[in-house]
Structure formats: C-alpha cells, structure tokens
Write a structure and sequence with these properties.
- This protein is of the alpha/beta class.
- It has four helices and 13 strands.
- The chain has one domain: Rossmann fold, CATH 3.40.50.880.
- β11 and β12 form a beta hairpin.
C-alpha cells in the first residue's frame, strides 16, 4: 500500500486533516499525517499532498500585503519553509491543491493575485461552478473533467510570464474559447513529478477521472 503524506493543521481543538482529505487519500493509500516536529527527519512516503488552506504570507514571495489579504496559517507556513523543501530534495512526487498550488507557483517565481474579486466561486463545498480551458499541448485531457470547484480569492497569474520550469495545463474558463490569465487552474513541472490544481479534488465526485490519471502517474501505477 502506498504511503501518502500530508501536513496536519489545527482544526478547532484537534490537530490533523479534515475528513474530505482523509477519505480522498484513503482511495490511494495509507494516510500519513506529518507534524511540525518532523523538521529534522520527515517520514519517508511515496508522495505528498500540499493541501488548501489560509492565505500565504506575501513576505515569503517578496510582495507587500494588500489590504484584502486574509489570515495565514503558521503551521502550513512552517511546512512550506522547513519540511516541504526536504521532500523536494528527495524528489518525492507532489499533488498540490489550492493553497499548496499557489505556494509552489511562487517557489518557482510565479506571480500571485492576492485578491481576485471577479473569479467564480462555488456556492458550497462541492459545487462545481466553472469549466476549464486546456492549453494546446494538453487538450487531450479536456474530456476527463467537466467543471471544477472554486473556493479561493488568491490565484496564480501569468502576468509576469510562466516560470521556466513549469507548464500550464489549464486555465479557468471565462466564456467559450476565452480563458482567465489571472487564474491558472492546473500546472505541472517539466522534470519533477508534480501536479498542481487550484480546485479541490477531495470534494469532487467520481466523475473527476483527471485526478485519477494524475494520482496513478505520481504513484507509478
């Protein structure tokens, strides 16, 4: 059984992950919750998931905070700075979701929009509210997913260009044949085993066969 690591965080008086992440991971392997104390020797796992969550501190990617910046999560900030780089040095495969995707975009020099007021948002946790436009190289994937969830006000933008190491797979659709260059929805790394998605696959139903493909590839199946 594959071992899939994910950082834990505070949820009320508890520390761990939400049931949606736990159930999602259990479809693919054994859940390994990685605590902040793992800084010296994080457990060996077959892949890691960088989860969604609070806003990333703008100071970590060289920006001045906007007046509409949200709260940050000190445990996930600790993960970003002290534990994630260890796994990246190990070349551990990564699936990054929402906040996790945004963090990795900035790691490679990408620009974040700190408050995107005009992007479609889901009405609830599972509402799939907008479609994607796939880039030419990845159009073959467009039949594997229809609509996606959207629960974010920050977004990955190509305003300053696409980082050299990365490839955009899909953008958010604005209207037919028109995409939003301020909302990268999926990207990958040219040489590192990594898929990063802005939407929340842990809240999608079984119609999302794209994430199946990504997970199978990352786990070498």
């Amino acid at each position: 059984m594959s071992k899939i690591g994910i950082p834990g965080w505070l949820i009320g008086d508890a520390f761990g992950v939400t049931t949606s992440y736990a159930e999602f991971i259990s479809n693919w392997g054994d859940l390994i919750i990685i605590p902040p104390s793992s800084i010296d020797n994080p457990p060996e796992v077959d892949m890691i998931i960088c989860p969604g969550g609070a806003d990333i501190l703008p100071s970590t990617y060289g920006e001045v905070p906007s007046f509409k910046i949200g709260r940050s999560n000190p445990i996930l900030e600790h993960w970003d700075k002290n534990i994630l780089p260890i796994y990246m040095d190990r070349k551990t495969p990564i699936l990054a979701i929402c906040r996790g995707m945004q963090k990795l975009w900035t790691v490679y020099g990408g620009k974040l929009i700190q408050n995107n007021e005009y992007h479609d948002q889901s009405n609830n946790q599972t509402h799939q509210c907008h479609e994607l436009i796939f880039t030419e190289k990845y159009k073959r994937l467009s039949d594997k997913i229809s609509k996606v969830t959207s629960r974010h006000h920050q977004s990955c933008s190509v305003e300053n260009g696409i980082p050299l190491e990365l490839e955009v797979i899909a953008y958010s659709m604005v209207s037919k044949n028109t995409y939003d260059s301020d909302v990268v929805e999926i990207f990958t790394h040219k040489s590192y085993p990594m898929y990063c998605v802005q939407y929340h696959p842990e809240d999608h139903d079984n119609s999302d066969v794209l994430i199946d493909q990504f997970m199978n590839e990352l786990l070498g199946r």
